[in-house]
Amino acid sequence: MAHLHITSWVLAFILLAIVVSLAKKGNEKGAKITQMILRLDYLLILYSGGSLFASYASYGPLVIIKLLAGLWAIASMEMAAVKTYKHKPAGIWWTQFIIAVAIALILGFGFLPMGILPR
Ligand code: HEM
């Protein structure tokens, strides 16, 4: 399940980069279609994250903070992508996205029981 989780959010980052680059080239239709695929990928992130949560919820408050950071990352990535291809100001969403992902990565890899980095 951890592999599915990591694969699905890495895929999300790639799709997000494609949405932004298509939007920058003025290909709004392509950006919208890629955004639809990105939304399907959110389901994989939520499913795998939800299953990990079911297994590790008893670990304590850090897992709950990790879950919230993950949800925050998805919400801010969705807003950043939509604002970018609509050519509206997106900076505040990108900032939130970076903070949320940083928290998710640090907790996920560094502090939680699934983590692969040394503690
Ligand atoms: C872009 C969004 C996300 C990123 C970058 C991210 C990142 C990570 C990372 C790095 C790990 C550790 C994996 C490992 O060491 O094997 C992890 C585990 C986990 N993630 Fe996420 N995640 C995201 C979204 C979510 C969401 C939306 C949820 C909840 C629905 C969630 C819930 C969890 C849980 C419960 C774990 C297991 C923690 C543990 O006990 O080690 N994640 N995530």
Automatic annotation (TrEMBL):
InterPro entries: UPF0344. It comes from the Bacteria. Keywords: Cell membrane, Membrane, Transmembrane, Transmembrane helix. Its main location: membrane. It is found in: Cell membrane. The chain crosses the membrane at residues 6-24, 36-57, 94-116. It is a multi-pass membrane protein. Belongs to the UPF0344 family. This is UPF0344 protein MUN89_16330. It comes from Halobacillus salinarum.
